[in-house]
Amino acid sequence: MSSSSKPDTKFDQLPGVVDNNADDALANLGYKPELSRNRSTLQVAFMSFVLASVPYGLATTLYYPLVGGGPVAIIWGWLAVCICVICVAASLGEITSVYPTAGGVYYQAFMLAPSNWRRVASWICGWLYVVGNITITLSVNFGTTLFLVGCINVFESEPGVGILAGEPYQVYLIFLGITLLCNAISSLGNKWLPLLDTAAVFWTLIGVVAMIVTILVMAKGGRRDAKWVFTHFENNSGWPDGWSFCVGLLHAGYATSATGMIISMCEEVQRPSIQVPRAMVATLFMNTACGLLFLIPIVFVMPDIVELINLAQPVPYIFKVATGSSGGAIGLLTPLIVLAVLCGVCCTTAASRCTWAFARDGAIPGAKWWMVVNHKLDVPLNAMMLSMVVQLLLGLIYFGSTAAFNAFSGVGVMCLTASYAAPIAISLATGRKQIREGQFYLGPVGLVCNIVALAWSALALPLFCMPTVVPATVETVNYASVVFVAAMLISGGWYWMWGYRNYAGPPTHED
């Protein structure tokens, strides 16, 4: 383990991992195989698809593009972000093909960086990756909670008043139940998760087709014309038009933020240097098409935008107006609710793996506890419980501010975006030399993808610190930057107090 090695030891860079025996390849990277490799190429692609859960992600965050620009922000913003994130996936795929470990991007940052600063590069990237995984899992489960409250309230006790008040304690208790359920499924049913992911893909496709056919055929609230759907821009944010459109991209950025989380499953995949890169890129094309298939019909039956932005969750109301009944709406929303829980299970699984991997290299306080694998369940159970406890504690912020979900989703996107950018930037700065031996090397196309990926990252980081509307109030201000800075200060302080002297980074060739 790296905790026994000396900091900044000089060694030769490991060659590209091309061994078809994944366990031998992992041993060459310095790790003992501890998890079962029970996923095929198709199954890892399906897990990547469920991690994103595009219809759910787009449904729970539709408020942002509605405020930022309306139909233009919803449809064209989604397409623009998907193009950028495909470049992120391709760039990460090239690097993962060479360094396929559960450590993911922080391991890659260490191996790609020059020897004199690889430790600090992997430390920063690792904390960004772990915090991003945990907070995006938190935001998924919290988003599911708020979405479920919105779905329940399609039934009204009186006109305009839902049957569930949505008091902070009610919201937190539902969030607690969903979080415990996701952790129970992920830990106790690990060997069945590939089958669950496969079922979730077909469930999603069938559910989306049922939704779009029903709302377009019924359309009790009327239909918009194609010109309005594809060209109407309506700024309700208070920002200048261009920046308002950009702020609305949180919708798409959130739905695609899980792109690199699948890398943490590399040690449970049969041929990770090939399967994981292909799955990441192929899934993005699937997600792009699925997102358009879901969004365009919704915009065609959309009620007045100003009316929608006064709702915390606009999609349940859109479905209710389109079907003309609460029962019809809840029937169409059921596939999204189930998908939301399955997405939470996948995010819980990925977050536990990256937390475990970072602890395995000695970077998390109490690492000897969190690096333990429960071989009976075949999961890093302690790391999963650590991740769960952190999520439940952060969820308490909701009692102080209902803008908590904005902070969770924003900081999750920011941390993951920054962690993805780190190895890409280092690889580009060092001439892309190390990745040329990988089985997913893209040549000049990869270079273009690197540039686009970093440009998107440079835009996304400040973008997701911004309040959705201005002037901002206590309830509408974006606390993502506060959480992001707090996480970085804590990790930086831990490195200064302990990591500088003790953290050696991932295992080296000499180790």
UniProtKB/TrEMBL annotation:
Compartment annotation: Membrane
Keywords carried by this UniProt record: Membrane, Transmembrane, Transmembrane helix, Transport
Main location per the UniProt record: membrane
Residues forming coiled coils: none
InterPro entries per the UniProt record, alphabetical: AA/rel_permease1, Amino_acid_permease_CS
Membrane spanning stretches: 44-67, 73-99, 120-149, 169-188, 200-222, 242-263, 284-306, 326-351, 379-399, 405-428, 440-464, 476-497
Record flagged with keyword Transmembrane helix: yes
Membrane topology: Multi-pass membrane protein
Protein name stated in the entry: Amino acid permease
Protein's organism: Bionectria ochroleuca
